Fold these 4 entries.
Entry 1:
Amino acid sequence: MGFFAGSENQSRTDLAGAQLARQATASLAGLLAGLGKTRSDLAKAMGVSPGRVSQIMSGDANLTVRTLAAAAEALGASVEITFRPCPQPAHGPGGHSDGSGDPSAARDSDLTSHR
């Protein structure tokens, strides 16, 4: 284990957290659009300021499960979170990982909102 192994793990965790926040906010934005609602509508339904909704939707905020649940509840939706192992790269003679795999894996790993 190298000297910077701890910071490397933290960096990967930060990147994964940022990606998860982007997925959540993209899904929330898609739900809002699908319902024909605005961020102001969401703020009123959640009982928060429009500025707070902007923070949530920016993807930069450290979103909590409670915040996601509150947004879903305000919109009459649910949030689904699924944990699954990451695909492992193929090893061996001529084996390589080209990033392809089960197309449902990416779809299933997204945070999805259901009405």
Entry 2:
Amino acid sequence: MTTLQSTSFSVERLINDAPFSRLQRLVLVACLSLAIIDGFNSLSVGFVIPALSEDWAVNPGSLSVVIVASLIGEILAALTIAPLADRAGRRAIVGLGVSCFAVFTLMAAFAQSVEILMIARFCAGLGIGAATPNLIALGAEYSPERARATVVTTIGLGLAGGGFLGGFVAGYLIPPFGWRSIFIVSGVLPLVLLVATLRILPESVEFLAARKRYRDVAATMSKISMQTPFDEASTFTVEARPDGRAPFREIFVHGRALATIMIWAVMFFGLLVNFFIFGYMPTVLTTSGLSQQMALFATSTCTFGGMAGGVLLGVLIDRTGGGYRNLFVGPLLALAATVLLVLVSGHALLVVVVVFAIGFGAIGTQICANAWAAALYPAHIRSTGVGWALGVGRVGGILGPVLGGVLLSAELPGNTIFLLSLIPSVIVGALVFTLSRLRPISHGPASPRLR
């Protein structure tokens, strides 16, 4: 009787050493597609408020509770539901989250009151908050270290791109079909896409290995490291194993406490300034002398800049020896461009160029911060770590528009408001600079580089 000799393989080493396979490209496409729908759904209320307020004869300001309800749902889910993936699996929570925001977005399409719409958007926010951190975690776990920042920032780009595309879809659908059509489309599309992507979206291979489901790991790894011979006796290791602590406590041990607090602060202040930019840039630019049409065009250009910044900064992180230290370029560019914006306000073409640079630096840094959060944590607590980072960041996303509203109510000049936005940008820059220079974090048995 022949006995197979057990051979142990490191999952991370196999992924790092193998060429980028067809399966990994499919994972990236699936995560990116779901992220685009996620981003579209997340910002869909903003697109319908003008038509909705006219249809229901209510003040647009009274609908702000609907936007806040969605954000609160996202925060609560990121803190409580998304971390369940560390025990139940990424794929299951992604499926649950996408289904949730699709179903309740369809419910929003048939709402007859602000109260019902608020409840529907809160529940849709729960789905978005559950899915987003796990799309980021799944993308990170199927990426080799040499391309991880690029892959995760590409998924983050999908979130931003979904919001950008939503504006065009809204402009096409709302005039002939009404505001409800946006919710119908953003509810049906996720369900269709979910059915398509779950057929090709595998479970996290690191999650499977940590639970000793070695046959499933071998079946997946044979599609990535195709030259490596696996058999029924093959076993697989991951960089760390759970030590019995609750996942939330784990994000503060092994030297991770300071880095965790700092990445939370990066996300908080980054989203604070970004949501301020998106919420009030058209208004502030208009008060600074630009026409309304040019102000809207400039804001869209800012979004384009953020998409470009997310990808190019991610490539810079992956392709150079500086790693995440290079991310300091983002807030530095945003700071310089904001000062320039004050100097060139009123000159339409120059304003467009400068706000592109602001988006490149500010929004691009925020997109890359998602990848950084994923890099800070080992597989068994990655959804918890990323979920809490995104959840805390969303609190800044709520405060940004609130602070912007206070500044506008005080009737401050547009240039003064832009200069005040430098404060959170400076804080982000200081945090990025400091965090990138912390000593390497211990992930347990192994100690991957922080940068």
Entry 3:
Amino acid sequence: MGALVDYVRSGEPDLTNRQMALLLVVYLSPGPHTVRGLARALNVSKPVVTRALNRLGALGYLRRQRDDADKRNIFVARTPEGADFLEEFGHFIDDAGAAAPKRAATQRQPALA
């Protein structure tokens, strides 16, 4: 919860769960990635992936790249901006994880005898 609250407060663009899942699949699994393959990986339709890619592309987190060998194929490629976003999001998770034991210790109630 702490990581998500800090993320919302950060002013970074809000991503839907689908957009975040798509971003993570592209960055954490080996490519090349296509719309069809991403739709299969997420068990959603190709239009769902296309809409998410439009948003992530507008933010600069992913980009479409034409296959040089077959111009009909379009790959989804990582960008430095997307890598920076995920690195920052990772810091939210790390910071929240480090703060969790401290919060838990201060919230403990003394045992009643």
Entry 4:
Amino acid sequence: MRTPAELLAPVRPDEPWLLSAGAHRTAAGTALPARSWLVTRVTPGEDGTDPRLGEPLPPPAS
């Protein structure tokens, strides 16, 4: 399943990029909350670039 996401550039060049996806549902209908991941590496891929993600970051405090 595809969902819109944002690739956020760091404020400083020595900080990692961040991938953020909003809440969505899987093809099977399972609801998933919004999540963010640090991008650990980017390599060339078939359709442009292939980001490698670290573990999901904890959700923001509510």
